[in-house]
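User: Um, any thoughts?
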Amino acid sequence: MLCVETIGKIRRRGLRDGESISGLARSLQLSRNTVRKYLKDGVEPVYKRKPQAGPQLGPWCGRLDEWLRGDGLLPKARRRTARRLFECLQAEGYAGAYDSVQRHVRQWKIEAGRATSTKAFVPLFFASGDVAQFDWSYEHVVLGGTTTTIKLAHFRLAYSRQMFVVAYPREAQEMVLDAHNRAFAFFGGVPRKVIYDNLKTVVDAVFAGKERQFNRRFLALASHYLFEPVACTPASGWEKGQIENQVGNVREWLFTPTPRFADFAALNAWLATRCRELGARRHPTQDATIAEIFALEQPMLQPVSMPFDAYIEQPLRVSSTCLVSVDRNRYSVPAEWVGKVVSVRISAHGIKVVAGGELVARHERKFGRNQLICEPWHYLSILETKPGALRHGLPFTAWVLPPAVEAVRAHALKQLKGDRAFAELLLVARETGLGALDMACQLAQEQGHLNTSVVLNELRRLTSPPRASLMETPDALVLLLEPVANCARYDELRGVSHV
């Protein structure tokens, strides 16, 4: 098929200048039939792409088809994109171009009947510092040697495209609150609006149009950071299309293949680092990197004065075993609150128990089921009436004490009424601290006595307040003439002689 420029030459020289068909054929190195054809009807060329030979990709086509068939058996969310397949081929030695892989993947999907139709959308515009978008996704990682499904909170500034992601064990309201704290700290500010799906941890009720009843605790977060929450129209994900695309991109860039980490802390540290590194990519609509545009957007964000106290609160009654149940796990509370209602504040990483306006217990949050988290100090007051609990009480049998204290305990429990004597030591140590008790036990060991009375004596000696030193009298206050005892002076003052 001739190009448009050559066809134009044939028609100008033949029809306008009167050049013969044979002369045109010789000068343009074409057949006379071809020249005659274009002089007659001037057919406009129709271009068809010839099948590409793909010399670089050829040896890898079998491997690529094998991966595509294998990915076809996985859920859609876990299938690799053409870009990710290209990177996997590069890791095995492929030196060709990405375009060849992309064409092969597209053709394979068409032949397999998996090609999707393209929908039409309206382009959106967001001002600098105006809008961020939020969404959740689930991913698969290996944590501590075990394959785990995690929940990933996604944030994206709509103007600069700067993203932030953080992982949690589940999608709960306290996780949503904590994720906002982390995201705004990462961005160094707060946008004026944040766009959400109608997720239950944010929206309590959906009304007609854009009317929503937001969750009260979530509204407290929005009021603290001074941003306006905006909920999408149901089934209209295009209203926050950037974050929808980010979910797929992050899965491709960060979670394919499945990464491995020791725990959530290591995973989230790596995610924050990768979010900064991905800022080096080119901005899709501006001639700069995402990091450069983000640096321009940052001053437009509202400043963060202090983080929000990201917890949800539940009133719970303390059981007879000094426990409250949170998310199918049980946590201990001081024994004096048994049978009473306390306020339990649940955050993404901890449990706080507030009673009488004071913080009475604090625990690291555990995930899973049927775990018992006991603090032995919470049960010490029970030992006053039940010292035998030292022998078989779970909080005390699992209590890891310093070696010197453990030696005194083992010696005491072998003696008659030794459990009561050791309980007295612990009750005193509740005020003085375990460090002082450990020192007292070490001093008793040095003396060759593990008796609890010796330890108690050393403990009281260590913790007793120091004696006040004698005050030295200043020279100005020293008496020059010391008074002499003389009872007659009293009579002189009275003016009467006394016999």
Observations:
- The chain has five domains: 4-41, 58-111, 131-300, 311-373, 380-463.
- The first helix runs from residue 4 to 16.
- The chain has a mean pLDDT of 86.
